[in-house]
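Hey, quick one: can you model this chain's 3D structure?
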Amino acid sequence: MQMPEPDQGVIDRRAEIIAAMRAIVPGEGVIADDAMLRAFECDGLMAYRQLPLIVVLPETTAQVSEILAYCHANGVKIVPRGAGTGLSGGALPLADAITLGLSKFNRVLDIDYANRCAVVQPGVTNLGITKAVEGDGFYYAPDPSSQIACSIGGNIAENSGGVHCLKYGLTTNNVLGVEMVLMDGTVLRLGGKHLDPGGYDLLGVLTGSEGLLGVITEVTVRILKKPETARAVLLGFNSSEEGGDCVAAIINAGIIPGGIEMMDKPAIHATEEFVQAGYPLDVEALLIVELDGPKVEVDYLIDRVGEIAKGQGAIYSRISETEEERAAFWSGRKNAFPAVGRLSPDYLCMDGTIPRKKLGLVLQRMTEMSDKYGLRVANVFHAGDGNLHPLIMFDANQPGELDRAENFGADILKLCVEVGGVLSGEHGIGVEKRDLMGEMFTEDDLKQQQRVKCAFDPSQQLNPGKVYPTLHRCAELGRMHISRGQVPFPDIPRF
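Sure thing. Here's the predicted structure for all 495 residues.
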């Protein structure tokens, strides 16, 4: 993995930069000790590690604005960081960059039940929003597996989803507005407590931008009334292909469940041993289907789902009869990742999306790849929207296994694109998939995307080395005026 060459001039000015940051963020808001910096050397993609130049933990929008303005004027790069739970290396530090942590932006600022929204700071956890409103019968719909720890700011950066995104949408469908700071210190507001503002959809551009365009300091999210009833059903099949066909049949019948999740046999066994959720152990594939809404509707639809599953070859069916039982069904799915972690010293969690009708083919091809690379794989995924999360198990202490695992993962992602899917469903591109962007986009496509970045960050100081396989100067993309042959910012590194 190639990253931009560190700017030694910036590293040599480290003491000066530390002093400037401490003047802006007094107290314990600046971390410069190497031992303490170790906590920030990677995100959830722990295969790549790098100590940051320093870490700064601001508490106010004014501080963020001052930090970015200073860095813009002095040629210092910024790597924004949320909770550090991302799995694509989007928050990987750079040796010559400040890691800007937003963990102290952790307050719920306003709850507006009349307008069904909440205003929170980006460091509030995903689950924290639901906890703040559940006493009044509301909740926040997106629910990634890491929701107990991941922050809403990071959710926006990666456009996170979760098990209920089939019916209620991804983060982009549930964010109404943001306050953000541009690289030059300018504070902007996009959207608000209203729906569908006119003009360019800049909020849509920002969601999923992985910290390349600005630093978010405030978020307005949509909150929903908790459904009257929610019930889940476990459906077991003799093959993953049958499970995939059942998913398609449910959707084709016009039924949109709150969520449809699938696990294959290795994941089922690992999860059941870990949490004792009551999963059957004699099936090759397990679906978790949840219906929510008015009780009479849910009762009718859950019976319809059962009939459809039977017609698709289901050999096991169990409907939740209590809220505790429903929660147990989901506890297994939510803990699938740590459960698989007990089977192997290390694993890579991949993230790609495919058309639902291609599920059987993709699973078959992944089995062949597993044999090719000599590595086990467990599959856990959001079957309703075709978002796959293959877990490739390996031992980093064994020479060559990490490389094999990465090559295996790259082949899975190439396969997703080959069958009509995309490289990422909700984990982002970061550094993990950066060099695969050419599999999905043409050179012209990538240049157009980078022109958007140039419009927000012409000096390219925000999170460099992420998402795009080649860092072009904005001038090369036709967005900068060149006077007398002199290119602005000639020192921007290319790699």
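One thing worth noting: The chain has four domains: 8-101, 108-225, 229-337, 344-432.
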